[in-house]
Amino acid sequence: MYINLSGLNVLVTGASRGIGKALATKLAEAGATIAVHYNKNVREAEELAHILGNESKAFQADFSKADEAAKLFDRVSLEMGSIEIVINNAGLAVSADINDKDEEWIKSWNRTMMVNLDAAAIICKKAIQHFMSRKVSGRIINIASRAAFRGEEAHYMAYAASKAGLVSLTKTIARSHGKDGVKAFVIAPGFVRTDMSQEFMQKYGENHAKGDLALERLTEPKDIAPLVTFIASGMADHATGATFDVNAGSYLH
Ligand SMILES: NC(=O)c1ccc[n+]([C@@H]2O[C@H](COP(=O)([O-])OP(=O)(O)OC[C@H]3O[C@@H](n4cnc5c(N)ncnc54)[C@H](OP(=O)(O)O)[C@@H]3O)[C@@H](O)[C@H]2O)c1
Predict the structure, then answer these.
(1) Known active-site residue 2
(2) Nearest Cα residue to 124 out of 61, 169, 66
(3) CA separation for the pair 198, 216 (Å, rounded)
């Protein structure tokens, strides 16, 4: 099977490192032009856009600030002309203890929701409008988490809740805009070896992360990228609304 995405523009949020970087790389290998979104890691993002080629470009936005996600979408569509595929991947996992002061706890909650859910939601809204106005057969791929379905450790309540929100947002888009040509999918990874999971593993230990896997090794970003590239190609369009679990079989334990 040959996947050719040339001529398609893809916005990948959080593409400066980790899973997003692997997704951008695989999509560009298939010929797509990538809008490499980043927040702080400007050098990595610009280097990546250069390596990816296909006229890919880096775009900055801090999703913990109101309006930045919407403005990002506008900038990307203005510079690239049209966007056919959106991948909401940027995210953070903020640890909060139940004994934190209420103000601190709610601050962590709000920051998590803004980056993981609110930014993705406004980008979805703008993408749907963009697809419909240009009669583009658009695809949205939202990177949620296994945590949306089975919860998370006590310190990551907001994280799990944000990812559950992302799942129902995606399903609603799939069922309500399918006839407008919009397809929406969820990827729900388990532990993936990135900076984000590193912090978690430092706290709980690598064995905790590996304990319930059916496979030998922890999932890496490169294990997710081929599936996302396949979905981006349109060959999985009749799975719109579906969640693809990529968790090394950890649901089976
Ligand atoms: N790793 C896992 O075990 C795992 C498991 C399930 C789901 N996921 C999900 O997969 C996605 C990618 O995770 P990852 O492990 O690759 O994370 P990561 O290595 O920590 O990378 C996070 C990415 O998100 C961007 N980002 C962080 N804060 C941001 C903000 N305030 N505004 C805009 N962008 C921001 C970062 O940009 P800069 O680097 O430029 O600051 C970076 O590109 C996340 O949505 C995560 O929840 C991860």
Answers:
(1) no
(2) 169
(3) 18
CA atoms within 13 Å, Cβ hemisphere of 92: 19
Among 48, 86, 92, the mutation site with the greatest number of ligand 1 atoms within 8 A of its Cβ is 92
Pick the CATH number of 9-193+221-246 from 3.40.50.720, 3.40.50.970, 3.40.50.300, 3.30.420.10: 3.40.50.720
Tokens of 61: 């936005």
The percent of residues in the chain predicted with pLDDT above 90, rounded, is: 92
20 lines ligand 1 (CB under 6 A): yes
Q: What is the band of 171 on the pLDDT scale with cuts at 50, 70, 90?
A: very high
- Give domain limits for the chain: 9-193+221-246
Closest ligand 1 atom to 45 CA: 40
Q: pLDDT at residue 131 above 90? A: yes
Pocket test for ligand 1, best of 17, 163, 193 (most atoms within 8 A of CB): 17
Residue 89: CB within 6 Å of ligand 1?
yes
- Please answer whether residues 72 and 10 qualify as being in contact, where contact means their C-beta atoms are separated by less than 8 angstroms: no
Query: pLDDT (tens digit, 9 = 90+) per residue, 192-251?
Result: 999 999 987 888 888 888 888 999 999 999 999 999 999 999 999 999 999 999 999 998
What pLDDT is stored for residue 249 in this prediction? 95
Please report the sign of the dihedral spanned by the C-alpha atoms of residue 227, residue 232, residue 236, residue 240: positive
